[in-house]
Design a protein that fits this description.
Elements (H helix, E strand, L loop, with lengths): L1 H18 L3 H8 L14 H8 L1 H25 L6 H20 L12 H11 L1 H18 L2 H23 L2 H17 L1 H8 L8 H54 L3 H14 L1
Helix pairs in contact: 1-4, 1-5, 3-4, 3-11, 4-5, 4-6, 5-6, 5-9, 6-7, 7-8, 8-9
């Protein structure tokens, strides 16, 4: 009994710490910036996409989702995997929800994190992969059509709650069901400011063209930087070649001077012969 309790405690702690790694903030630091100082201040997918482009937005989503996947898998295999039955299935949600809490209240960043949607999607990818894949596709389509990240997140979260409820009841996984409702309510609560802005018709609309342009600008900047570096290398090689040629010319001239300064042996021999004849 004690060992089981310790396993649950260990799972919760490990998953929470895993969730506390906020990739949005870490990725923004690669740009020598801080995502929390831009837009909504949220280090999540939409704000990263808006401020740093599509590449960084997608990368943030994938990394945040992988936290949920990793935590859910740790729970699943820690409690027996395929042989663990409903206990292992429940552990998927225990680990995954702990990661979501870590993402929303990260100990490494003064308990100020994201809204948990991407990390929560990791639970779906492990518990019911097909449902997770369908919901991800729905999210992408909604984002392209509506272009309001909070609306897309809330729609997909509620859709997940409905579909997963049916599947968890069929599995008789009531622990997972309770945790599912808990995490959905947590996500809705995290979007409370977005909901207020939506009601006031002041919610930010995502400009996908601008996001794509940020990627293009970054690519062009890297391309120009590499081109300038190559040009500098070519210029340096040309300068080295000029210096080498200068040295070669100098050495050649010195050899010619040395040759000219040598006494003429033939003239000396001729002078000596003339002298002997006169004698």
């Amino acid at each position: 009994m004690l060992i089981t309790v310790l396993k649950y405690v260990g799972l919760i702690i490990i998953s929470y710490l895993l969730g506390s790694i906020i990739f949005g903030r870490l990725l923004s630091k690669l740009q020598k910036d801080d995502i929390t100082k831009h837009g909504s201040g949220n280090p999540g997918t939409t704000n990263m996409l808006r401020n740093y482009g599509v590449m960084y937005g997608l990368l943030t989503f994938v990394l945040d989702a992988l936290k949920g996947v990793a935590a859910a898998l740790i729970g699943y295999f820690m409690f027996g995997g395929a042989d663990g039955g409903v206990v292992a299935r429940a552990a998927i949600y225990i680990g995954g929800v702990s990661a979501v809490i870590g993402h929303m209240f990260p100990i490494f960043f003064k308990f100020k994190g994201g809204k948990g949607v991407a990390t929560a999607s990791g639970i779906a990818f492990v518990a019911h992969p097909i449902v997770g894949a369908i919901l991800f596709a729905v999210y992408i389509v909604l984002l392209l059509l509506i272009r309001i990240g909070s609306v897309c997140s809330l729609i997909v979260a509620l859709a997940y709650a409905i579909t997963d409820t049916v599947m968890l009841i069929m599995e008789q996984n009531y622990v997972g069901l309770g945790l599912l409702y808990f995490v959905i309510l947590l996500i809705v609560w995290a979007h409370r400011e977005n909901i207020k802005r939506l009601l006031n018709k002041k919610e930010n609309v995502l400009d996908l063209n601008e996001a794509v342009q940020k990627d293009i600008d970054r690519f062009n900047a890297l391309k120009n930087k590499r081109k300038n570096k190559n040009n500098q290398l070519e210029l340096k090689e040309e300068q080295n070649e000029i210096e080498t040629n200068k040295v070669t010319v100098t050495e050649t001239k010195q050899v010619e001077i040395d040759e000219n300064n040598k006494p003429n042996n033939n003239e000396n021999d001729k002078t000596n012969n003339n002298k002997n004849e006169n004698e």
